[in-house]
Task: structure prediction
Amino acid sequence: MTSGTLPDVAQRERAERKGAKARRRTAGWHAYLFIGPSLFGVVAFLLLPMVIVLVLSLFDWELLSAPEFVGLDNYRRLLGDGETWHSLLVSVVYVLLCIPLQTVLALAMAMLLNRPVKGVRFFRSLYVVPWMATPIVLGLIWNWIFDPRDGALNSALGLVGITGPDWLSDPSWALPAVALVSVWQHTGYNMLFFLAGLQSIPKELHDAASTDGATPAQRFWRVTLPLLNPTMFFVTVTNLIGAFQVFDTVYAMTAGGPGRSTEVINFRIFETAFKQFDFGYASTLSMLLFVIILVVTLAQVRFFGKRTTYDLS
Result:
């Protein structure tokens, strides 16, 4: 009887394996159906444009004429283009003005709003409102605030006997003024991520540190900040990418002036493409910006990789 049942057992096992493979194949197709719309968006609006820009960077194209293949000539031209390297330097200074300040302010606001006080939800919502406004509208409003004669900022400074500068007409002040607007707009949005990170830290860890005699400052540096590394990583990566790609705020407030003091690399790409109609070289500048963002992002991944803990259990 035993010898007669062995083939039946083996046959059932083979059938079960085939059924499991079929179920996995079906589940795989179901998964692709769910991610299909997002995958289409990534390919159509991210990967495909990148390939097109890379190809265009090898051509000389003025839109109205036929593209002419020039190989690496645009990249050789880039090496000696002082205006582009100046724009890149302006972008780096802009990033250095924005990212540290808005990150510190966002974390400080999150810690203040991570307390069970009356009306805290209202203030959490209020601080996010600037991020919801369009940069063009904010640029117009802040142009009035920074107006040297009738602006609100210089009028307030005048009340305490301080003569404010020509914020957007002075090359020394224009870029810090634009950076200040960006910090004001994005700090509340970043605060939400830090707030979520703070609320995910188990309270028992702070209680244990307090029991061991740790001061509030020690708890912050040794408990809170290390456990916020995942949030810090996300915030700094996304903010750096956004800061390097800034355009609309600069366009609305200064249009790259005065004296090209606010001409960030994205504004340089815009002028090259849509004012000089040099789409091939504008694509080369776009590839330069892509490589810089990629290198900076990979450096952040390497920095945070060994310092980040996701499992708090």
About this structure: The chain has a mean pLDDT of 87. The longest helix spans residues 2-56.
